[in-house]
Amino acid sequence: MTAPNLSVQDALASLAASSSVVVPASERVADRIRIEVAEARLRVGARLPEQALGEALQVSRNTLREALSQLIAERVLVRIPNRGVFVARPEIDDVRDVYAARLVIEPGAVRFGAHAGDPAALTAVRVAYRGGRAAADAGDWAGVADANQHFHREIVALAGSPRLEREMGRLLAEMRLIFQRMPGVREFHEPYLARNGEIAELLLAGETERAADELARYLATARDQLLDAYALLPGGAAVPH
């Protein structure tokens, strides 16, 4: 696996800029690396130079290795013997598993969330959608992808659960990797942008059940589209939805 050196250098610079004077625990280190993946500074196939990574984060080798092991268990990273640690390359089963989790978490956050009726939280969902709309109007489809992740983070934030928000961060990091294997950003995100807006407006109108149902249909459609696309990739295989 290889990746442009610039991408890794940008990620190292970002990690160094955000590191704390206090040595973080392995969970915090894993969170920081996960963010670099979710924000596409670390891309599929990128090799993580462990010494440089530890220096950027100002952490010990043991802390870093614990964090890397956690991310390997989450399938965000992969260790290749005698070669090192790389950003993982998702496969079709990963798509299915990520969406199985999202179909439980996201509609559940809408239906049962402690903040599902909070005007400020609902406005944050609309603001995230409008960020995507503005990016699309500017022809910035990478920006649309970023805004889409923001939209789904705000959906899960309706639950009022830091645990679910952390889990969604893990899922969105995997989603970023899944999308990196797709042939085009616009082709996938454009049809869903309007649906984000519809869900936001349903929530603001107090139509919680309709919003949750629409979100579940949306996620199922996206899952099936990705499964079909992955089946066409080298090594892919048609799999029943």
Structural class: mainly alpha
Number of domains as seen in the coordinates: 2
CATH-defined superfamily of the largest domain: GntR ligand-binding domain-like
User: What is the helix tally?
Assistant: 10
The CATH topology of the largest domain is: Four Helix Bundle (Hemerythrin (Met), subunit A)
**Spatial ordering of strands, largest sheet:** 1-3-2
Would you state the CATH class of the largest domain? Mainly Alpha
Major sheet description: 3 strands, antiparallel
Question: Considering DSSP H and I runs of 4 or more, what fraction of the residues is helical?
Answer: 55-70%
Radius of gyration: 18 Å
The assembly state of the depicted protein chains is single chain
Characterize the structure shown.
The chain is mainly alpha-helical and 241 residues long. It has 2 domains: 5-87, Winged helix-like DNA-binding domain superfamily/Winged helix DNA-binding domain (Arc Repressor Mutant, subunit A), CATH 1.10.10.10; 92-231, Up-down Bundle (Four Helix Bundle (Hemerythrin (Met), subunit A)), CATH 1.20.120.530. The protein is 70% helix and 4% strand. It contains 10 helices and 3 strands; from the N terminus they run ααβααββαααααα. It has helices spanning 5-18, 26-38, 50-57, 61-73, 92-112, 119-137, 141-157, 162-180, 185-204, 208-231; strands spanning 47-48, 77-80, 84-87. It has a 3-stranded antiparallel sheet. A hairpin with a 3-residue loop joins strand 2 (77-80) and strand 3 (84-87). Helix 1 runs parallel beside helix 3 (50-57), helix 6 packs antiparallel against helix 9 and helix 7 (141-157) runs parallel beside helix 9 (185-204). It is globular, with a radius of gyration of 18 Å. The relative contact order is 0.12.
